[in-house]
Amino acid sequence: MRTHIVCGGLLILALVGWAVTGCEETTCGEGTVLREGECVPLQPANCSGPGVRFENGRCVPNYSEVCGPGTVRSEDGTQCVAVEPPLDPVADAGPDTPADIPEPDLDAQLEPDVVADVEEEEMVVWVPECDDELVAGETVCAWGQALNFVDLTPLPSDTGAYSLQVQIKDMIRAMTDPLDTLAEADIVADGRFIAPSFEVPDAPPRTLLLIVGEDEDETTQPAGPGEVWQRCISGLVQTSDTVTEHGNLITFGLPRALVTAWNTTLSPTVLEPSGFVLIRIVDVVGPGQYEPLEGATLSYLGDGSVTVRYFYDLGLTILKPSTATTTGPSGVALLIPGESTSATDMCTATKTDYMASSAVACGSNPYRASINYIYMLATD
To answer: What CATH number has the domain bearing residue 296?
Structure first.
């Protein structure tokens, strides 16, 4: 449980052990965050604004904005603390202090042997480095972040027995040879990945698939869903004859344990052999801001037969009855392919007073979870 404090219109997250007084408290439940006076799902779009950022599946204060002179972020990242040893207060400092008074020389007020031990806090910033000799239309670089589809936290770099990676495949070639891979990018700290340079087959435009999963070696061929993390198709890249770098790509993984639990509920249906599709339907509440849309209906536009199921909860652990026709708080729909479905099938979504910005791909692929988003716009 997290407690959110509203002080003078600025949203601050009160983490455990950080006391704040003189504010009005609102308590939000697990998996939600306070935004504009309401508890909304905990997602990157809902952790924005002055002094707040999304990090490791939660909203945290952006101390680079809110920590003032003479303070730094604490080692555990939960608060601003004074530089040690603390400075002597300036007797007349206040609102009327002239603006041209220079900032105090912190080093001059510390003993020489103490200065040597004080290190400026370093902010680790991941800077993707593509190859310098990329050729438009021939070689490209791709980089981004891999997230857990359930709670949008970064994927781990490995699961103990298996390393996680993003495999980049040409869509057309992968249909005839699933093992054909253009590039493999290991998932590292904070879910980051980069393929600094790889060749694009034939002349652009080409559609590239991003597949998140365990390392495909001799013992883990793509004819299986994965051991700890479900293998997921969760990103598309369209190449061109002018673009050499495709960045800020977001891909998704899915815990296998969750899929196993769904199979128990859906028995005798087993999801893996035919593959399945997960689509999160979201409300576009502002530029770059999205919230899961409850009460929406997924519409299949293909010629085959499919089964659509919805979830009760944000954690996607409980499926609604088969008679349910609308999304729950997570906005997620599970599409199970039947006869005559295709890898190129499309879906859209409907809800009163909303319209979908566009139809999206919802084709299935054996042993894969295909993941996509549908963006809904309010019409009233």
So the answer is: 2.60.40.1120
Q: What is the pTM of this model?
A: 0.66
Domain count, the chain: 3
Residues 31 and 58 in one domain: yes
Domain of residue 305 covers 269-378
Structure tokens at 321: 């009855």
Q: Measured between alpha carbons, how far is 135 from 199 in angstroms, rounded to an integer? A: 9
Using an 8 Å Cβ cutoff, are 258 and 312 in contact? Answer: no
| Residue 99, C-beta contacts closer than 8 angstroms, at least 6 positions apart | none
Residue 131 domain flag: no
Three-state SS sequence of 276-297: EEEEEEEEEEECCEEEECCCCE
Q: Do 230 and 273 share a structural domain?
A: no
Q: Distance between CA atoms of 329 and 341, rounded to whole angstroms?
A: 28
SS3 151: coil
Count of Cβ atoms closer than 10 Å to residue 326 Cβ: 17
> Are 80 and 40 within one domain?
yes
Asked if residue 239 and residue 153 are part of one domain, the reply reads: yes
Q: pLDDT by residue (tens digit) across 223-269?
A: 567 888 888 998 888 888 889 999 999 999 999 999 999 999 999 99
**Judging by beta carbons within 10 Å of its beta carbon (0-12, 13-18, 19+), is residue 8 exposed, middle or buried?**
exposed
Q: Does a structural domain hold residue 263?
A: no
Smallest CA-to-CA distance from 367 within 174, 218, 201, 185 is with 174
Q: Is 259 helix (H, G, I), strand (E, B) or coil?
A: helix
To which residue do tokens 């899915």 refer? 254
Check whether residue 247 and residue 279 sit in a common domain. no
pLDDT in tens, 88-147: 434 444 444 444 434 444 444 434 444 444 344 455 577 889 999 999 888 999 999 999
